[in-house]
Write a structure and sequence with these properties.
InterPro entries: SH3_Rv0428c (IPR056934). This protein is mainly β. About 0% of the residues lie in helices and about 35% in strands.
C-alpha cells in the first residue's frame, strides 16, 4: 500500500483532499446557534436541476453524521458529508411594530 506524498502542492495550491470533511472544520456548529448551511442535493430530484441548496435556521442537534436545523419550513437534517459551506449568521432583523391608526 502506497502512502500519500506529504510534499506541498505546487504554487501553494491546497492538497487534493482539502475538500473532504475534517474534524473541527466548523467549531461554531453548536445547538442553539443560528447558521446557514449550503449542501449538495440530488439534481434529478429538483425541478430545475439545482445541485445545491441552503438551510437557514437554528441548530437543534449535531453529531458525526448530520446537523439538524430548524428552519421556517420545519426541521431539516443535513448529512455532514454533503455540507459544502457553513456560516454562523446573526438573528433575523426585527420588524418595527405596527402602530394602529
Amino acid at each position: 500500500m502506497a502512502l500519500p506524498d506529504p510534499s506541498p502542492s505546487p504554487a501553494g495550491a491546497p492538497p487534493p483532499d482539502a475538500h473532504r470533511v475534517r474534524p473541527g472544520w466548523a467549531p461554531f456548529l453548536e445547538v442553539g446557534r443560528r447558521v446557514v448551511l449550503r449542501y449538495a442535493i440530488d439534481r434529478s430530484s429538483t425541478p430545475h436541476g439545482e445541485s445545491m441548496t441552503d438551510a437557514l435556521g437554528t441548530i437543534l442537534g449535531v453529531d458525526d453524521a448530520a446537523v439538524r436545523v430548524m428552519t421556517r419550513r420545519g426541521e431539516v437534517s443535513v448529512p455532514r458529508a454533503l455540507v459544502i459551506a457553513a456560516k454562523e449568521v446573526p438573528p433575523p432583523p426585527r420588524r418595527p411594530e405596527r402602530v394602529a391608526p
